[in-house]
Amino acid sequence: MKKLVTTIILLGIIYLLYTYRNPIIQYIMIHFVYQDSLEVQKSNSYMRPQDWLYVQKTDNFYPNDKQDILNLFYTALDGGWSEVTFYCEEKYPNCMNDVTAMTKKGNATLSNINNFVVTYNAYNRIYVDMNSFGRVNIRFERLYTEDEKRQIAEKVSELYEQLLSTSMSTQEKIKTVHDYIINHTVYDQAHADQFKNNEDITISTSNTAYGPLFTGKAVCGGYTDVMALFLDKMGIPNYKISSDTHIWNLVYIDGEWKHLDLTWDDPVVNNGSINTLQHNYFLISTENLEKEDKTEHTFDKTIYLEAK
Question: Could you tell me the pTM of the whole model?
Answer without folding.
Answer: 0.86
